[in-house]
Write a structure and sequence with these properties.
- The protein is an alpha+beta fold.
- It has one domain (16-176).
- It has one helix and seven strands, in the order H-E-E-E-E-E-E-E.
- The strands form two sheets. Strands 1, 2, 5, 6 and 7 form a five-stranded mixed sheet that branches. A two-stranded antiparallel sheet has the order 3-4.
- A hairpin with a 5-residue loop joins strand 6 and strand 7 (168-176).
Amino acid sequence: MSHSFATPLPRRQRGVALLVVLMLLLIMTLLGLASLRGSIMEERMSANLFDRSLMFQAAESALRQGEDFAATTKPSQYTAACTNGLCTAPNTAADVTFVNRWLLDNPPYKATTAVTSGSLSVTPGYFIEYMGSAPNWPGCDRENPIQAGCLGPRYRVTARATADGRSQVILQSSFTSPE
């Protein structure tokens, strides 16, 4: 008994497998590029967050130094020229630009201690504005006679930290100190 096995004739290939593989490769490449773009965006966001955090810490450090300095000064030391970062109260009648001195092209900041992290070093600054006397507790200025210690000097301390091409942070506080 003899068996005859017929050998199948070779089919004509049409390249469908090649097209499927190329489509899968294209899809994987697009997914890889999207993932890479997302990673780059996250890296930029974390760098910006780092910059902002460093600038905030530097500005806060300058703000505290300014408050400490204000506590040791007398109202007579403050000038319209902002000598040594000590400014008189803004005079809106004379010049409206002095209301917000921090917006001037060259604000009168006094440099403070540098803050460094890695290769980035920031030297923040501050200026203090004497805003006049104000009550140290509610209603004390309406008493007759006014009690000792009722009125105290008020200061506005403005601090800024910035680095070229990086974040800029400006902080402000109202501060009082006993005379």
